[in-house]
Amino acid sequence: MGINGSKKFIINGTAIFLPDQRSIASLNKEKKLILYNTASRCLLTLIEHAGQTVSHQQLYQAGWEYHGREATPNTLYQTISEIRKSLQQVGLENIISTQPRTGWIINKSIVIVEVNEKDPVELPAQPKKSSLPFWKGFTRKFFFR
């Protein structure tokens, strides 16, 4: 399973996930986030199996093993946590449920629509970070080398 550049998913009419760009954004263009590679691959796997329990092993394979890496259970749990936080930041809550000792599932009530590659999807620009006041930047560069 590789990340396919043509896939785009609208989740619950609230956010769009672009696996090839590793991005998730709110459709109202307020927020855009870039996910880590492994988190993006795990989210894609969860989406592709929406409504079904995705096992720990499936996520290990999608996120790490397929790319020649290994991960600890703690790394997997942190990745799921990161995915949940990212979904929450774009307006999606309680999307992923834990299935004790088996894996995770995207709730059956969640509507996920795969958007055709030819359909135009415009994402918001990455928000600009506020810059330091002139004197702070100057002080750091000048006095603290």
UniProtKB/TrEMBL annotation:
Which keywords does this chain's UniProt record carry?
A: DNA-binding
Q: Which residues form a coiled coil?
A: none
**Cross-referenced InterPro entries, in alphabetical order?**
OmpR/PhoB-type_DNA-bd, Sig_transdc_resp-reg_C-effctor, WH-like_DNA-bd_sf
A Pfam family assignment = Trans_reg_C
SMART domains linked to this entry: Trans_reg_C (SM00862)
Could you tell me which residue ranges the OmpR/PhoB-type domain spans?
6-108
> Which residue ranges does the Swiss-Prot or TrEMBL entry mark as DNA-binding?
6-108
| Name of the protein in its database record | Winged helix-turn-helix domain-containing protein
CDD domains named among the record's database cross-references: trans_reg_C
